[in-house]
TrEMBL record:
Transmembrane segments: none annotated. Pathway: Glycan metabolism; pectin degradation; 2-dehydro-3-deoxy-D-gluconate from pectin: step 2/5. The lineage of its organism: Eukaryota, Viridiplantae, Streptophyta, Embryophyta, Marchantiophyta. GO terms for molecular function: metal ion binding; pectate lyase activity. Its cofactor is Ca(2+). This is Pectate lyase. Its EC number is 4.2.2.2. It catalyses: Eliminative cleavage of (1->4)-alpha-D-galacturonan to give oligosaccharides with 4-deoxy-alpha-D-galact-4-enuronosyl groups at their non-reducing ends. InterPro entries: AmbAllergen, Pec_lyase, Pectin_lyas_fold, Pectin_lyase_fold/virulence, PEL. Keywords: Calcium, Lyase, Metal-binding, Signal. Residues 129-324 form the Pectate lyase domain. Binds 1 Ca(2+) ion. Required for its activity. Residues 1-21 form the signal peptide.
């Protein structure tokens, strides 16, 4: 074999080996576990159950047998007021390899905390099943996706989304969160600050916009499972499974928080399961579309509110237990309507304010409701897919 042929063969082998060399580092960032267009953990099914459910979010990505090759296309699938949330799209994929309880002011590369404080957009995935229990709250910066698809990821520490934008939280088991702090916690690559005692919420969204919380399981935290407060806007809460908790979802913390008047939240395709007491959700001041959710029993009430909210309940499945009223009006203000809801076992909804055909409800139209008869199928795959 001639020398020129040998040289060409060697060059070709070098190219092939380089292409399979594994993850690429981001420039000037010593992670060692970031890559583009690759995954470390894949679901075994080529087509997931949600593909045939009629759920538009699930159909958007679960019908693609090669979804794991382009995870970031999930960002195209959001509906409602959170539509257009980018998360870490157009950034690198970051693979979490270390579930350890790291230093909250100086996290190690490979940990979830290290990933979420980086300045650049990142799509964060996990290389294996993990149970992550941190001593302090997990503070997430802008343009991040935490994507648990393909791994069974449990988090028993509160996630804080504060004064940021474009964050997607998908596919996590969030439970048994306890109060943390006061403590020093790193909130970005460049800043460490003093944090007060937290409430022990599952996820707390404050003063943030374009937030999408999808396909997670929430249970048994100290205070609320999911709070959206302090003027947050453009939020979608979809396909989550809630169980075994008292104060489930708070949308607006105080009647006097006037910045919440501009809040817009879509609550869709969630399964509100057994052991829930109240706040499914509890609404203040803003505009809320509660659409195509499955309600399986509640203790005090399902949907509550005060301080002049606009609440449009559309195409939901309400299956009452001992408590029959769906709603609790904590004052005489606001506009509440029910359109196309299905009420079983004596469940009933108390409307108030403007009639259901009033133009005031046009501002709630973030998504067109599907028939309530389809809700069992639409919510059958709520919660993480792994």
């Amino acid at each position: 074999m001639g020398v020129s042929v040998i040289l060409r063969v060697c060059a070709l082998l070098a190219i092939l080996l380089a292409a399979d060399a594994g993850p690429r580092e981001l420039p000037a960032t010593p992670k060692g576990n970031t890559t583009r267009g690759a995954t470390r953990r894949e679901l075994t099914a080529t087509s997931l159950a949600g593909c045939g459910s009629g759920n538009p979010i699930d159909v958007c990505w679960q019908c693609d047998s090669n979804w794991e090759s382009h995870r970031e296309k999930l960002a195209d699938c959001a509906i409602g007021f959170g539509r257009g949330t980018l998360g870490g799209r157009n950034g690198a994929i970051y693979v979490v390899t270390d579930p350890g309880n790291d230093n909250p002011t100086d996290p190690k590369p490979g940990t979830l905390r290290y990933a979420v404080i980086q300045n650049e957009p990142l799509w964060i995935i996990f290389d294996r099943d993990m149970h992550i229990q941190l001593d302090e709250e997990l503070i997430v910066t802008s343009f991040k996706t935490i994507d648990g698809r393909g791994a069974n990821v449990h988090l028993t520490t509160s996630i804080t989304i504060q004064e940021v934008e474009h964050v997607i939280i998908h596919g996590l088991h969030i439970h048994d969160c306890k109060p943390t702090g006061p403590a020093e916690v790193r909130s970005s690559k460049w800043h460490v600050g003093h944090r007060r005692l937290t409430d022990g919420d599952g996820i707390s969204v404050m003063s943030s916009n374009h937030i999408w919380i999808d396909h997670n399981a929430f249970a048994s935290c100290t205070d609320g499972l999911l709070d959206v407060t302090h003027g947050s806007d453009s939020v979608s809460i979809t396909n989550n499974y809630f169980s075994n908790h008292d104060k489930v979802m708070l949308l607006g913390a105080h009647d006097e928080d006037w910045d919440d008047k501009s809040m817009r939240v879509t609550v869709a395709f969630n399964y509100f399961g057994t052991g829930l007491i109240q706040r499914l959700p509890r609404c203040r001041l803003g505009t809320f579309q509660v659409v195509n959710n499955f309600y399986k029993d509640w203790d005090i009430y399902a949907i509550g509110g005060s301080a002049n909210p606009t609440v449009s309940s559309e195409g939901n499945h309400f299956e009452a237990g001992d408590t029959k009223p769906v709603t609790k009006h904590l004052d005489d203000t606001g506009n509440w309507r029910s359109v196309g809801d299905l009420f079983l076992n004596g469940a009933w909804f108390k409307p108030s304010g403007e009639g259901s055909s009033s133009s005031i409800y046009s501002k709630t139209n973030s998504f067109t409701a599907l028939p309530a008869s389809q809700v069992p199928s639409l919510t059958a795959n709520a919660g993480p897919t792994s």
